[in-house]
């Protein structure tokens, strides 16, 4: 956890990273020794002097490096998913607002048409032809 925290906050000093790795390997060795004691009480505890061989240590370092990179990538992937969901939510809210505004504008246009038809009845009255000559007196 310390190494991961150090890396996440931008730490990159090789000496500190090596110390953190050494501490993690030592803790792992102690944990394995404790787990072994639980299984078989006759086993002696693993002492810090009995750390894994150099080849095993290199494999553990490589594995730890891969695990840390995987965690970093998982965090980055989660951040990208959250950003995408936020953008999608924002886009859907904007689309919903546009739809509501469009419906309101269409309703206003309908009301204006209705009002215009009511205030100008002569536009819709039947148009009769004008008489050609004046009517004859009786």
From TrEMBL:
UniProt entry keywords in alphabetical sequence: Coiled coil
Signal peptide range in chain numbering: none
Q: Kindly give the InterPro entries that the UniProt entry links to this protein.
A: CCDC17 (IPR038800)
Tell me yes or no: is Coiled coil among this UniProt entry's keywords: yes
Residue ranges of coiled coil: 56-108
What is the name of this protein?
CCD17 protein
The protein's organism comes out as Origma solitaria
What gene is this protein translated from? Ccdc17
């Amino acid at each position: 956890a310390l190494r991961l925290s150090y890396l996440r906050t931008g730490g990159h000093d090789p000496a500190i990273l090596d110390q953190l790795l050494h501490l993690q390997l030592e803790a792992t060795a102690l944990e394995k020794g404790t787990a072994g004691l639980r299984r078989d009480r006759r086993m002696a505890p693993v002492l810090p002097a009995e750390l894994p061989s150099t080849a095993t240590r290199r494999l553990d370092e490589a594995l730890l490096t891969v695990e840390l990179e995987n965690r970093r990538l998982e965090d980055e992937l989660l951040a990208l998913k959250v950003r995408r969901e936020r953008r999608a939510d924002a886009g859907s809210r904007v689309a919903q607002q546009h739809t509501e505004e469009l419906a309101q504008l269409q309703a206003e246009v309908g009301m204006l048409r209705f009002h215009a038809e009511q205030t100008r009845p002569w536009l819709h009255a039947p148009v009769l032809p004008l008489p050609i000559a004046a009517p004859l007196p009786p």
